[in-house]
Amino acid sequence: MAQRIFLAGAAGAIGQRMLPLLRAAGLSVTGTTRSAAKAESLRAQGVEPVVVDIFDAEALSRAVKATRPDVVIHQLTDLPKNLEPRLMAQAIPRNARIRSEGTRNLVRAAIAAGARRVVAQSIGWAYAPGPEPHAESDPLDADAEGDRGITLRGVIALEELTLQSPPLAGIVLRYGQLYGPGTHSAQPSNLSPVHVDAAAHAAVLAITRGGPGAYNIAQPNQHIATEKARRELGWNADFRIAEENA
Ligand SMILES: NC(=O)c1ccc[n+]([C@@H]2O[C@H](COP(=O)([O-])OP(=O)(O)OC[C@H]3O[C@@H](n4cnc5c(N)ncnc54)[C@H](OP(=O)(O)O)[C@@H]3O)[C@@H](O)[C@H]2O)c1
């Protein structure tokens, strides 16, 4: 079992649900936030906090090097709380920048710090139109235009950086639409939903399990196939954290 984890986005929806699982696994976790107040909350959750912006490449590299992590986990997104429709148009390019420039900074920092593995959050609704359910080997929608085109360019950059940055072994988790504590929805409401606890569990399993590559992570649905995650990560969509352990 890996000993040291650098978790970028420890205060986010998935990051928060990963913390009890990482604690239970006995892992030592350094987690990022941009906020001093959230850093104190992370410390109270047993995490060594680092206040850093992903776009500050030098500060990020120093922070990752100081941790000497075995595994770096990328759970950063820049989306409005509750996916507030009024704010989404501005969020799309910001989120794409996190995926391209942010991932590049994080992967470079991980390599410089001697990490051996990187696990990154992607999305399960980026496939090009074609027969469903989509397997991970299906092409992404690289020709998309408009807002979807901006999102797709970010997703493709994130995935290429994660999967093609030797000597790192890269794992991309293509999540369906989140629901549950800390997310925009209490109940599954989309085409390929995934509970945030099960999403967090997939990222924890990927610390030690699964060959490099992409994995669809969603409840059984007609749009994306999830056999690979169940087979190679031992992932189960029904996984939940007992509230007394959260
Ligand atoms: N697959 C999905 O359906 C999916 C995936 C992710 C999010 N969401 C939705 O998006 C909404 C927001 O979720 P969330 O709070 O987890 O996500 P979030 O706040 O957008 O992102 C997660 C983390 O990214 C960090 N971050 C953002 N920009 C950063 C930067 N420039 N440098 C360093 N860190 C940065 C934030 O850290 P700090 O604020 O602590 O600095 C935050 O904790 C929710 O409604 C959620 O359900 C959906």
Detailed description of the structure:
- 39% of the residues lie in helices and 18% in strands.
- It has 7 helices and 9 strands.
- It has helices spanning 13-24, 36-44, 57-67, 85-112, 146-163, 196-205, 227-233, and strands at 4-8, 28-33, 48-51, 71-74, 117-123, 169-175, 177-179, 193-195, 213-217.
- The strands form 2 sheets. A 7-stranded parallel beta sheet has the order 3-2-1-4-5-6-9, with helices on both faces. The protein has a two-stranded parallel ribbon with strand order 7-8.
- β5, α5 and β6 form a beta-alpha-beta unit.
- α1 packs across α6 (196-205) and α3 crosses α4.
- NADP nicotinamide-adenine-dinucleotide phosphate is lined by residues 9, 11-13, 15, 32-35, 38, 53-55, 76-79, 81-83, 98, 123, 175, 177-178, 183-184.
What attributes characterize this protein structure?
246 residues, single chain, alpha/beta, binds NADP nicotinamide-adenine-dinucleotide phosphate, seven-stranded parallel beta sheet, two-stranded parallel ribbon, 7 helices
